[in-house]
Design brief:
This protein is of the alpha/beta class. It has a domain at 353-467: Ribosomal Protein L25, Chain P (Beta Barrel), CATH 2.40.240. Helix content is 26%, strand content 23%. The chain has helices at 19-30, 51-66, 85-98, 113-125, 136-142, 160-171, 221-231, 247-257, 279-287, 302-308, 312-322, 333-347, 557-564, and strands at 38-41, 70-75, 106-108, 129-132, 181-184, 199-203, 217-219, 236-240, 263-267, 270-272, 329-331, 350-351, 353-354, 357-362, 371-376, 386-391, 394-398, 418-421, 426-434, 440-448, 465-466, 468-470, 475-482, 506-514, 526-529, 533-537, 547-552. A hairpin with a 4-residue loop joins strand 18 (418-421) and strand 19. Helix 11 (312-322) packs across helix 12. The chain is elongated, with a radius of gyration of 31 Å. The structure holds adenosine-5'-triphosphate and magnesium ion (MG).
């Protein structure tokens, strides 16, 4: 079964205006960059992308799309001890999956190591950088605080010639790791600590995922980032708020080198309730095996969300609805789920699936007879058509849809009571069969042949319609019910955040029975299991049976719980 309606997705809402668009419009009006718009998405390949990155991806690629510009994908790979090719590959897959294209503009900060080195020599020769022999601890101790100025290093006034010689020998591998650094010579008394002679290069013997052992000195983020933007001709370098205090340094390097100068603009990062967003913590979850992997359907990673059944359209819609602001805030996870439900409601084919089966025998239905009944694929989409679902004497219904002793507002099946089977007949429960332990194992019912797909000719009413599958035709499957990974709205604020993991974040059901059309579902295909929620076929084939992940319930069940609590 292929999900060809995927391509007829509703158009993404055009995003509202925001302050970054206003800046771009102003710059275009003043001719600051000659009307050019070039942005970039610059992940560090030290983990998988998460939903916070999606906000940045949508923003950067979205600006380029809207203004007829370009957006580059750049791996910010200046930290060889934490970076891996696996991450580089996953990042590309995730950006593409979200629906964005960098054409041939995949770049690496490590491509610029040679140029960055040459520029460092240029700054040394201009008396704007020096080699410092202080240890990392001593440098920290000299840095001062927010209220006290820093102190100058005793090595600060080395001559350019001496600095150049030492820097070249740093590169040549003459000194041990951590023994010396190259620092920018700016201002140890600056109220902005980022300008107190920041480190530009460190000695580090580590094999880089791309440059191997070619380098034993590596540039720091602040020295590499703006210059990479400059090399690529970026016009608007959009980053998150924590870099606001780094902007004077970004500007200082470009000015001191006299190179093309992009404009850095900061926006508030996405925070989401019940979600951990830091890559370091996500890595902890993976390494401590608290989840199955980076693509565990409970993870906020794009690969996890994809495996859970999220659509790229829902994520893009979400990113456009949350907007772009200058002040930090936290978005309710319920909004993300709302966007998902809206998209899936439009597009996901409906099917019948019984998660906790209870056997029903229709005693007056002929043995061996099979009817192919017509079922609607998607009431929201007439083009989706209908399909045939087999009906026979032995069925499964949901265990929850029967109560031997029904409470007041329970209108589904009970002894002596009649309900409608979706797309089929009225059935009436005549007898309850139990095992030796007293558990209900089978219902013996009668069906009314005059009620196929409609009402009873005598006008008699039923108060519930339930779903079913034909026992002989059903596909047996495993279904994984996922829920929030954390029990508290802001797990990152908890000292013992591991203790806030939701013990019920995964419930695995085996022996589920699905209508036969689902035997052809391919991994990633999404469905609405009628009355139960949205589900997505999982790639895991290890059990020999299909596996489906619950993407999201039909309604926000937590809203009820929170309102009650
Ligand atoms: P983390 O803090 O989780 O390790 P990071 O910001 O260090 O993430 P990068 O790989 O450097 O990870 O991020 C790439 C880009 O994505 C950066 O421009 C960063 O500002 C942006 N980004 C990261 N997290 C978020 C977020 N929660 N909301 C919006 N943008 C984000
Ligand atoms: Mg970062």
């Amino acid at each position: 079964m292929t999900n060809d309606r995927e391509s007829t997705a509703a158009p993404i809402e055009t995003a509202a205006s925001h302050f970054i668009k206003d800046i771009v419009l102003e710059d275009n009006a003043s001719g600051k960059f000659g009307g050019r718009v070039c942005t970039r998405f610059p992940p560090e390949p030290n983990g998988y992308l998460h939903i916070g990155h999606a906000k940045s991806i949508c923003l950067n690629f979205g600006l380029a799309e809207e203004f007829g510009g370009r957006c580059n994908l750049r791996m910010d790979d200046t930290n060889p001890t934490k970076e891996e090719d696996e991450y580089v590959r996953s990042i590309q897959e995730d950006v593409r999956w979200l629906g964005f294209d960098w054409d041939d503009r995949l770049f690496y900060a490590s491509d610029y190591f040679g140029q960055l080195y040459a520029w460092a020599e240029q700054l040394i020769e201009a008396g704007k950088a020096y080699v410092d022999d202080l240890s990392a601890d001593e440098i920290r101790a000299h840095r001062g605080t927010l209220t006290e100025p820093g102190r100058q290093s005793p090595y600060r006034d080395r001559s350019p010639a001496e600095n150049l010689d030492l820097f070249r020998r740093m590169r040549a591998g003459e000194f041990p790791d951590g023994s010396r650094v190259l620092r920018a010579k700016i201002d140890m008394a600056s109220p902005n600590v980022n300008l107190r002679d920041p480190v530009m290069y460190r000695i580090l013997r580590a094999t880089h995922h791309r440059t191997g052992d070619q380098w034993c000195i590596y540039p720091m983020y602040d020295y590499a980032h703006g210059q990479s933007d400059s090399i690529e001709g970026i016009t608007h370098s959009v980053c998150t708020l924590e870099f606001e205090d780094h902007r004077p340094l970004y500007d200082w390097f470009c000015d001191a080198l006299g190179i093309y100068h992009p404009r850095q603009i900061e926006f508030a990062r996405l925070n989401l309730t019940f979600t951990m967003m830091s890559k370091r913590r996500l890595l902890d979850l993976v390494q401590q095996r608290l989840v199955v992997g980076w693509d565990d359907p409970r993870m906020p990673t794009l690969s996890g969300l994809r495996r859970r059944g999220y659509t790229p359209e829902a994520l893009r819609d979400f990113c456009s609805r949350i907007g772009v602001a200058k002040r930090d805030s936290t978005v309710d996870l319920a909004l993300l789920e709302h966007c998902l439900r809206e998209d899936l409601n439009r597009r996901a084919p409906r099917v019948m699936a019984v998660l906790r089966p209870l056997r029903v025998v229709l005693t007056n239905y002929p043995e061996g007879r099979v009817e192919e009944l017509e079922a609607v694929n998607n009431p929201e989409d007439t083009a989706a058509g209908t399909r045939k679902v087999p009906f026979s004497r032995v069925l499964y219904i949901e265990r929850d849809d029967f109560r031997e002793d029904p409470p007041k507002k329970f209108f589904r099946l009970a002894p002596g009571r009649e309900v409608r089977l979706r797309y089929a007949y009225f059935i009436k429960c005549e007898e309850v069969v139990k095992d030796a332990a007293g558990e209900v194992v089978e219902l013996r019912c009668t069906y009314d042949a005059a009620t196929l797909g409609g009402d009873a000719p005598d006008g008699r009413k039923v108060k519930a319609t339930i779903h079913w599958v034909s026992a002989a035709h059903a596909v047996e499957a495993e279904v994984r019910l996922y829920d929030r990974l954390f029990t508290v709205p802001n797990p990152a604020a908890e000292e013992d955040w591991v203790a806030t993991l939701n013990p019920a974040s995964l419930e695995t059901l085996v022996g589920c029975r699905l209508e036969p059309s689902l035997s052809a579902a391919s991994p990633g295909e999404r469905f609405q299991f009628e009355r139960l929620g949205y589900f997505c076929a999982d790639p895991d084939a290890s059990s020999g049976r299909p596996v489906f992940n619950r993407t999201v319930t039909l309604k926000d069940q937590w809203a009820k719980i929170e309102a009650k609590g």
